[in-house]
Write a structure and sequence with these properties.
The strands form 2 sheets. Strands 2-1-3-6-7 form a 5-stranded parallel sheet, sandwiched between helices. The chain is globular. α2 packs across α3. The two termini are about 15 Å apart. The chain is built from 6 helices and 7 strands; from the N terminus they run βαβααβαβββαβα. It has a single domain, classed as Flavodoxin domain (Rossmann fold, 3-Layer(aba) Sandwich), CATH 3.40.50. The model has no long low-confidence stretch (mean pLDDT about 95). By secondary structure, it is α/β, with parallel strands linked by helices.
Length: about 210
């Protein structure tokens, strides 16, 4: 069975969310086109992803050198790391969903990637650089932004979107090939509110097409 993992990295507010609405259109289209596939939703704002902080590094050290000294909290922390990693490894396709924050992804999404990007699991180091271990898998990055950074902006401004470059480079590093890494940018709605209906229709149509073919 093919598994699609959707990683939502978007805060929950009462306001309309362009990226969450767009991924819903994608999901409906995907389900219609892939009725036998399993879909997992990982909502990073509904749970606290364990950070790579002092507590985590200390637990890793104890687990490596003195596993008998691990506390219950240590074991629970390490188990949560393992759960996120194994869920990611078991999936065949990934969809990352986030709003742009100051030219980057949300902190929750960065923290999630820190947890799952484990050497010898997603990639391995060689003398010629890292080699990805997830060949044959697919990724889609859906990102919303109030202004234009990709769809209608001067190409010189794309460098301001470090988040999209980060997700793309991370997926490349873990072995997802160029043709299997895709991006959908939902943009311009804050800068041009009078075009909201047009931009929404464009985003939803793109999401529907991605859902059919992904």
């Amino acid at each position: 069975m093919t598994t699609l993992l959707i990683i939502l990295a978007h805060p929950h507010t009462d306001d309309f969310s362009w990226s969450l609405a767009t991924v819903e259109e994608f999901k409906k289209s995907y389900q219609d086109s892939h009725p036998l596939d399993k879909i997992i939703i990982r909502d990073l704002f509904s749970e606290k992803v364990p950070a790579l902080d002092n507590e985590t590094f200390a637990a890793w050290k104890r687990n490596k050198y003195a596993p008998d000294t691990l506390s219950a909290d240590d074991k629970n922390l390490l188990h949560r790391h393992e759960e996120y990693l194994e869920e990611f490894l078991s999936a065949d396709k990934y969809v990352f969903v986030n709003p742009m924050y100051n030219g980057f992804v949300t902190a929750e999404l960065k923290q999630y990637i820190d947890v799952i990007a484990v050497p010898r699991k997603l990639f391995r180091y060689t003398e010629n650089g890292p080699i990805g271990l997830l060949e044959g898998k697919k990724s889609l990055h859906i990102q919303s932004a109030g202004g234009f950074y990709h769809n209608e902006q001067d190409p010189t401004h794309m460098a301001n979107d470090l988040g999209a470059a980060y997700i793309d480079q991370t997926m490349k590093m873990v072995g997802i090939t160029d043709e299997n890494r895709q991006q959908l940018f939902v943009e311009g709605y804050a800068r041009y509110p009078e075009r909201a209906d047009e931009l929404k229709e464009k985003a939803f149509t793109s999401a529907e097409n991605f859902g059919k073919a992904f």
